[in-house]
C-alpha cells in the first residue's frame, strides 16, 4: 500500500489553547458492535519513576453504542482511547470538543474523528493503518527469514521518513511521532520475530493439508468430555473464538447464516479458547450454536501444531477429519463456502 504524501506546509492549530482554557475537554461518539459496555480515556503519567496510565474519563455506552465524556487538560496531550480489547491514540489540546466513531470488527479501518483537531487525529489514525498494512504486505511477500529481515530493516526506514513528513505537516504531533519512530527502531527485532512466525505459519498451512485432526479434546455444554472424532462422516468447519473477542462476535451472524444453510450436511463446530467457561456456556446457548466445545487454558497445548495464536480462526476438515486448511476465510468474506 502506498502511503499518501501529506503537504509539507506547517498546519496551524484550529483553535488556540487560550480560547478553550475555560471549558473542559469533551469526547463523544459511537461504537458499532461494542465488545464491552464502557469506554475509557487514559493519560500516560510517571509515578515513582515508573511509567503508568491514569484514567481521565470513563463512560457507559447507551443502547446505540453512543457515549459522552468530559475531562480537564492543562496542556496538549497524547491520550489513549480504550474500547474493550482495542485501543487507539489521539491528540488533544485543552478545551477541545472531539468526536469519534468506529466499528470494532474493523477498528483501524473504520476509526474516524470529527470536531476539533479532526485533521491531525485522522492523519494519526491513517498513519497507524498504513503502517499496519505495510507490515502485513511485507509479511505476505517475504519468502524466507533472511529476506524478511532485509524487508523489516527497509520498512523501518521508510516508515521513519513518512513520520518525519507527518511531523512537519502536524507539528503538534512531532513529539508523539518521534516516540513512535524510536519505538519502531527499538522493536525491529520483535518485528523480525513476528515476520518469521508468519513465514513459518504459511509453511505450516501447506504441511498440515491431509493430516488427521481426530484427537482434539474439550468439553461440551454439559461439562462432559467432547472428542472431535464424533464429527467424523461430514465436512467439519471449526471456529476458534472467545466471548471477549469483538471480531469473533462480529462474524457470528455470517457463521449462523452458513450453519442455517448448510447445517444439514456440514458440521459447524464453535470452539472457545482463552475464555471463561461460564461466560462461554451462557453465550453459546444464547447464540444457539449447533456444536460447541470449550478448551480449558490447561489443555490449549494441543493446538500448538495448528499455530492457533490469534482469533477468530477458521479451519476446514474433510469427512475423515483430515485437514483441508487450517487457515480458512472468515464467514463474512463469502469465500468459506468454496471449501464445502
What is this structure's SSE topology?
Elements: H1 17-20, E1 25-32, E2 38-47, E3 50-60, E4 66-71, E5 77-83, E6 86-92, E7 97-103, H2 107-110, E8 112-115, H3 118-141, H4 145-169, H5 174-186, H6 188-207, E9 217-219, E10 225-227, E11 235-241, H7 246-250, H8 252-262, E12 266-272, H9 277-287, E13 291-294, E14 313-317, E15 323-325
Parallel strand pairs: 1-7, 11-12, 12-13
Antiparallel strand pairs: 1-4, 2-3, 2-5, 5-6, 7-8, 9-10, 11-14, 14-15
Helix pairs in contact: 3-4, 4-5, 4-6
Structural overview:
The protein has 340 residues and is α+β, with helices and mostly antiparallel strands. It folds into two domains: 17-199, no CATH class; 210-339, Glutaredoxin, CATH 3.40.30.10. It has nine helices and 15 strands. The chain has helices at residues 17-20, 107-110, 118-141, 145-169, 174-186, 188-207, 246-250, 252-262, 277-287; strands at residues 25-32, 38-47, 50-60, 66-71, 77-83, 86-92, 97-103, 112-115, 217-219, 225-227, 235-241, 266-272, 291-294, 313-317, 323-325. Strands 13-12-11-14-15 form a five-stranded mixed beta sheet. A hairpin with a 2-residue loop joins strand 2 (38-47) and strand 3 (50-60). Helix 3 runs antiparallel to helix 4. Residues 1-20 have low confidence and may be disordered.
